[in-house]
Amino acid sequence: MRTVFFVSDGTGLTAEMLGHSLLAQFAGIEFKRVTLPFINTPEKAAGALETIHAQAEKDKNRPIVFCTLVDPAVKPYFRTNEALILDPCDAFVSLMESELGTPSSHRVGAAHAIEDLRVYMGRIAAVNFAMAHDDGVLPRDLAEADLILVGVSRSGKTPTCLYLALHFGIKVANYPLTPEDFGSQGLPKLLAPWREKLFGLTIAPERLAEIRGERTPNSRYAAADNCRFEVEEAEALMRRCNIPYLNTTRLSIEELATTILHRTGLTRFGGGAG
Amino acid sequence: MRTVFFVSDGTGLTAEMLGHSLLAQFAGIEFKRVTLPFINTPEKAAGALETIHAQAEKDKNRPIVFCTLVDPAVKPYFRTNEALILDPCDAFVSLMESELGTPSSHRVGAAHAIEDLRVYMGRIAAVNFAMAHDDGVLPRDLAEADLILVGVSRSGKTPTCLYLALHFGIKVANYPLTPEDFGSQGLPKLLAPWREKLFGLTIAPERLAEIRGERTPNSRYAAADNCRFEVEEAEALMRRCNIPYLNTTRLSIEELATTILHRTGLTRFGGGAG
């Protein structure tokens, strides 16, 4: 067991994401993860070092520290040999300065800082759109949507819609496929005018049964044979109607959202720090 | 204007976040950003290089490439002198191998990979909670919530709730402060039992008027004097009742969410790759 710290003068999100990514390359080791965000004064830097030193002593092992401090008024106070400090600014900023022929600005927390109103409103509008139409869509909503996700209930549509809205400002509508849709040869009537906007989600029937069973155990809705029937019919419909689709079973929400962006060619909006 | 590429064998999210963070240190330069995700075969690596070389020729300048390729079957094919390649694996993995005394696994896309069902269900449950209670909360919802955000309409409660749910699996309820709440000396009646769970959001009245005006221009709701009144009364209430609060005007959704986590001491759930 090793302890890993994420130390930042801002939110810590960049340090965490970089760290999680690199730690995933060491699958055999168990890591305890601690985020120390908003380290923005020399006193807080000293406090963070104390925490790290105490952990080193407790663990009898040097902690690993992913550090994204940039403020020159704070960074010099965060130095120690009792941890392995990995700092992407140290690693990359001087290379970037030479390449760009200009010094860096040492701005704190700049990655997630103030968005302009247009970007903010775009994200909010997309979030509101997703929330308003999660329970059922009207024809005019489908017209407004950038993308329409189709799939059986609990196949992952809602969190994917919200991720796409929150991070990329994309308006996603959500159409649940139900047994009523399985009979016909063509697309469900409501969807027919919007073939180009459709993207399907499917899921392993076993996982679907597990997910549905969490909320409504022992129901017909969550029964293994019913889940298998719905998934098979939904996949047949998507193949028949040439709806591109993705299996969500082994993908995280992040992977689903970015894969859909990539496949559909929709543009990532603003600087949503995904 | 310089072009920046984010090249990944997975989603590209880590490369983007790291890159945005470092590019923010060069405020004077305009960057064109291009993500090339899912580069997971030698052919795709060659295709990515072609894209980058074409851009270099067009720009008459070397692009900057943030690269998080790890697959040893792909990575060797992604080499060029016509771009500045910045690769956190190259920079950090061998240091981590020495520190941990074990070789890395070169697993692809491991950062955002398959979550266990418990973590997934936690995120989904929190998202569903946020969505179900955005339009109005009942007493039993407040009992179930991990956190209750209070603030005037359009102060940023909804996106913050969703971010906390989606990324950290935290159940956040949302209580809009309205003129009816401003009269009384104490907390609004519904909130009184849950003092410990409350966290306030406030906003500059000018920004509030702008945001409200986008949806309902020239309304009483969006009028400057009404926004000022509501914000002043809401802040007075929060101070009177000792509700900790944050001004959302100059913060992104990411900053809001992580600042609230930090101030309330709520735990980040699972490995939500925020």
From TrEMBL, chains A, B:
Coiled coil region boundaries: none
An example Gene Ontology molecular-function term: protein serine/threonine kinase activity
Protein family membership: Belongs to the pyruvate, phosphate/water dikinase regulatory protein family. PSRP subfamily.
Catalytic activity, as annotated: [pyruvate, water dikinase]-phosphate + phosphate + H(+) = [pyruvate, water dikinase] + diphosphate; [pyruvate, water dikinase] + ADP = [pyruvate, water dikinase]-phosphate + AMP + H(+)
Annotated PANTHER family: PYRUVATE, PHOSPHATE DIKINASE REGULATORY PROTEIN 1, CHLOROPLASTIC
Recorded superkingdom: Bacteria
Amino acids binding ADP: 151-158
Top EC category: transferase
NCBIfam families: PRK05339.1 (NF003742)
Record's protein name: Putative phosphoenolpyruvate synthase regulatory protein
Organism: Formivibrio citricus
EC number from the UniProt entry: 2.7.11.33, 2.7.4.28
